[in-house]
Amino acid sequence: MQQKQVLAPRMIQSMEILQLPLMALEERIEQEIQNNETLEVEEAEEDTPSGEPAAPVSDAQQQAADRTVDEKPLVVDQDHANQADFERSYDWSNEYPDSDDDRSRPSATRVDEASDRYLDAMANMQERPETLCNHLHDQISNYELTEPQRQAADKIIYNLDANGYLPMPLEELLDPDGPADQIDQLIVALNVVQGMDPLGVAARDLKECLLLQIDPTMPQSRQLRRIVNDHLEDLGGNRLPLIEKKTGYSIQEIESLRELLHGLQPKPGAMFTSPFVPVVKPDVYVEQQSDGSWKVRLEDVNLPNLRISPLYRDMLLSPATDPATREYIKRKINSAQWLIEAIEQRRSTLLKTSQAIVDHQTRFLSEGPAVIEPLKMQQIADRIGMHVTTVSRAVDDKWLQTPRGLYALRRFFVGGTVSADGDEVAWDTVRVKLQEIIQAEPKDEPFSDDGLVDELARRGITLARRTVTKYRKAMDIPSSRQRRDWKLPRTPKAE
Fold first, then answer.
1. CA nearest 376: which of 362, 400, 403, 395?
2. 329 by DSSP, 3-state: which?
3. Do the beta carbons of residue 399 and residue 281 sit within 8 Å?
C-alpha cells in the first residue's frame, strides 16, 4: 500500500500565512476581518469602567507564539478544554449599544481609518509604464489610413514581441475569410508601423531592424547599409580583415562603422518591457548594536491586534443559542483562532530565520556584497531546528532593510566553490572580482583565462583555470581575443 503525507487544511493555511509578504498579509487580515464576524481588531486601549481592570488576555493567546503549526486546532466544545478562554465577563452596555441600527452602522472613526488606508495605498501606488502597443497606437492618428489599413496596422502592432519585432511573416496574419487585397493592406500597414517611433520597430530580424534605423542623412549611411546587409555576421565575429578584403574598406574605417552601429538599438521595444514593480515594503529590519552585533526586528507594528469577539464568545456559551447557530459560531471561532496563531507562528519563524541569516552574513552587512559568505537553506534549517521547506517559505518574497540597502532574504543564500587552498568562496564574490578585473584590464591586451587566474590569486581567490572559464562564460564575457573592442555588461547573467 502506497503511503503519502496528507496535510490538514489548517496546516496548509499556516504555510500560506508564513509565505505571505507583509503587504499581502495586511490584505489577508483585512479580508478575514470582513469575512469572519467573530474576528475583530483589539483596540490599543480598552474602555473599561473606573476601577475595573481590562479583560485579561487568554492563556491560548499568550501561548500562541510558542505553538507549532503541527498542533491540533482549537475545539471549543471538547471537554470544555478552552472554556476558561470564553468565560470572561463584559459590560454589554459599554460594548454594544441597545439599537441594532447603531450596532450595524460603522463608526465615523472606522470610516476615516478605512479612507486613510485607501489614500495611503493610492499614494504609494507606482505609475505603470507605457506599453509599446499603446505607444504605437497613439501614433496611428498621425497617418492618413483607410479603415482596412488601420485594422491591418492594429493586427501588426498586437503581434509584436517584447523586443518590438514582428516574429512571423505577413502571410500568417491573413484572415482566411478576409478580402483578396488584405496582403496589400498589410504591406502598407507594415511600412507605416516601421516608420513609427521607436525606429526599428516591426522588423522581422536584426538586419532589418538596423537597416530601418540607418537614415540616408547619417554619415557613411551607404557603407553602413553594406556592412549590415552583407557582413553583419563577420562583424559580430570580429573578422575585420575578412571584411576589409571583401569591401576594400580600411580596418580603421570598419571600426568607425562599428562604432556607429553600436549607437543603434537592436531591441527597439526593450524600453517598454520593464516589468511593473510594486512598492516593496521591508518585512525585517536589521540594526547594529553598540557591541557590534546585529539584531533583527520585524516591521509589523501596523498589523492589527486580533481577538475573538466577546459577543460571539458569549453566544457560543449561552444556552439560549440554538444548535445550528452554535455550530456555525464554533466553526468561525476556530477559523479565527487558527488565523491568530498562524500569524504569531509566522512572526516567530521569520524572526528566527532572519536572525540566523544575519548571524551568518555579518561580513556582508559590515563590508558589502563582495564578501558574502556561501550559505545554504539547510544550514539555516539546522541552526533553528526547522525543516528546510519551512525556511524556504519564510524567506520567500520577504525583504530585509539593511544599512547598505534593501535586499531580498533569498539574496543571502548563495552557492560557492572550493578554492585551490580548500577555502569555500561564494559565487557572487568570484563574479564581483572578475567584473572588477575585466573592467580595469588593458583594452589593447585583455587578460587570458590564465591571466584572470593570476589576477584573482592576487586578490586572495585561488581557482583552477577551468573554474574561471566557467564563470567567465556564465557572465557572458567573451574570450580575450573577442574583448578587444567589447564592453562589459553592467549586470552579469546569473547562473
1. 395
2. helix
3. yes
